[in-house]
Amino acid sequence: MAQGRDQASGAAGGSRAESAPPPRRGRGSRPTIGDVAALAKVSKATVSFVVNDRAGVSPAARRRVRAAMEDLGWQPNAGARALSNKRAQTLGLVMRRQPELLSTDPFFPQFVAGIETGLAPLGYALVLQVVPDEDTERQAYERLARDGRVDGVFLTDLRVDDPRPALVTELGLDALIVGPPQPGSRVPAIGVDDGSGIRRAVSHLRSLGHRRIGHVCGAEGYVHTEARRDAWRGALADAGLAEVPPVEADFTGASGARATHQLLDLDRPPTAIVYANDLMAIAGITAATGRGLRVPEDLSVVGFDDIPLADCIAPPLTTVRQDVLTWGNVAAQALAARTEGRAPEQITLPPVEFIIRSSTAPPPRGGRQE
Amino acid sequence: MAQGRDQASGAAGGSRAESAPPPRRGRGSRPTIGDVAALAKVSKATVSFVVNDRAGVSPAARRRVRAAMEDLGWQPNAGARALSNKRAQTLGLVMRRQPELLSTDPFFPQFVAGIETGLAPLGYALVLQVVPDEDTERQAYERLARDGRVDGVFLTDLRVDDPRPALVTELGLDALIVGPPQPGSRVPAIGVDDGSGIRRAVSHLRSLGHRRIGHVCGAEGYVHTEARRDAWRGALADAGLAEVPPVEADFTGASGARATHQLLDLDRPPTAIVYANDLMAIAGITAATGRGLRVPEDLSVVGFDDIPLADCIAPPLTTVRQDVLTWGNVAAQALAARTEGRAPEQITLPPVEFIIRSSTAPPPRGGRQE
DNA sequence: CCCTTATTCTAAACCGGTTTGATGAGCTCG
DNA sequence: CGAGCTCATCAAACCGGTTTAGAATAAGGG
């Protein structure tokens, strides 16, 4: 056949002026497996075998099919494939977040980016939903499951007694928890360890000489909030340090500032504070500075997340960095493997990094130290 | 044929102990339109008519179908539907971002959340891709188009001479530009106006008495970077203020600090600086403070974005807030409408807000003012 | 009462792939 | 030379919906 132009269906016609309708919106003109089969002079089945790398096709036929594919620029249609396979080749992520809090959160974009880098080479897509509350969250999972849009979902930001592991099991969705495994649930997890970062922070502060180390917690009800608080409390106990009441906050700057004042108003205020995230830590620095305290001379501050701003402020923030991008990547591969029934690769997450900048220093001598 | 049981596939079998495999992973057991039709004693076509609210079904039949749907908990399968309709009921968003910059960016999460709130009630899903560079970006669009995974895509962060409007047109994808319309392209746009926020900022500074107002630009090559710079330059000219050379930066904190030093090193340094985003502005405050300048007494600073941190730092940042959530919402509806061939509703975006906090004040008397 | 027109409903084709069962060609071997 | 195999190939059924063409029934008109 002339190698020139015999592209897809019709279309080619006379490139004359003619009133012939142009190739319908570009769409619809896409070649199908049938076109490829016809051009390669084989059946659709053979083409299918070729694209799926299955045995039973002669080298000659395989070559012809490959050439035809190339010629037509054909790639199998994802939807049709999904229908036959009963697999959508798509994974779902439902994020539940206050819209205001969303843009603070360094986790979300990084994690999504990581998932993407893991999914793209596998030919998977990611469908995303952002929901405001628990009700819509449940509906989102139900819809994803019913519609058959996804093969599996990621579960992030687990709450204590989170209903989602049970929900997805009931819905028959494959799932992967990003965080510590849920006791009593068969949903697999990639074990994120929030504790070790906090322990590193406490140990760092202790070695600087701090004896009273406070903690500003994240929003109540999340397992990572608990994990961080427990790690802090445990580290204090292990080191035989003074107990300081933890103070609740909710990851917002305002709550961080309030919590900071609360700690500094204690009879015996801490000389160092570990915050559950950077936003609260920065707000804490501002709050402390506003009271006439100097950071780090009078008060040491440790954050969590290492947001880009952390080293743009004064003083640059000592903080804990987690490689969320890699989490996403690993999670993507693990969940894809699971939906395909393959055992996931050995899962190892990179360890947290503890970034020492200038918001921590030895505690003041005597002075407020009581 | 016996009307009795011809449900889906086997399964039903003996519920005896037997080694019969349990209903495969919960999945696969989902009812189909055929099951509903059988239960309601109508044809598949009738069921289809009912779910799609089409005329030509008697009230009685309609009721029976509804009941059967309810009974079985059936909802049409999205994939099958997409295949028939040649519509995926899915929209795509490809974000090109340096992973490091991703978590800074208040735009991305908010915009995604906004899209979602617009899409969910329409039964659309969003597939997301995050890519590192221009090459993978193009591939992402090509794959989305070829696979037939999406009906349309959002185009954000337009660059000057951006190849994407032409690309998507060529790929036959419906698209919507989030930003100013591209001259010479037929791709519709929702007109985001970066300029007015900057003009507000300049006018605010001018009314405080500033005569020398500098600008730290965003990354080169983006239309919004240009728009902001042009607006700044135009506002200066309109007010007959002194020209100050704009200084290039790239939205990162480090670049913001560097740019700030560059401006302050001028023979006649500005008394106020307008930054293209908050991150650079905050880094700028830190840089200026490090040189012994006080903000706002010696230098006024205006940011752009109103990130949550903006009012947690000292001094709280005067900045421009755009309602990105609403942009996403509006964009979603507009693009969905377009893919369905409907004319989109009248598009009106909320105006930007100018948030005056404490990083701006009258310029110092005499002193550095020369 | 027959003919026309509307209405309700269904069988069958279709979307674009995958998978299965059957057919036929080419080999080996007794 | 024919039985027995293997291998390549293809037609047809299937996934779960939508859509069309036409049959069956009901209603209206002369």
From TrEMBL, chains A, B:
Pfam family, any one: Peripla_BP_3
Region (Disordered): 1-31
Descriptive protein name: LacI family transcriptional regulator
InterPro entries named among the record's database cross-references: HTH_LacI, LacI/GalR-like_sensor, Lambda_DNA-bd_dom_sf, Peripla_BP_I
Source species, domain of life: Bacteria
Start-end of Low complexity biased regions: 8-19
PANTHER family assigned to the protein according to its UniProt record, in alphabetical order: ALANINE RACEMASE, LACI-RELATED TRANSCRIPTIONAL REPRESSOR
Entry's Gene Ontology molecular function annotations: DNA-binding transcription factor activity; transcription cis-regulatory region binding
Domain HTH lacI-type span(s) in chain numbering: 31-85
Gene3D superfamilies: 3.40.50.2300, lambda repressor-like DNA-binding domains
Organism expressing this protein natively: Streptomyces triticagri
Keywords associated with the record: DNA-binding, Transcription, Transcription regulation
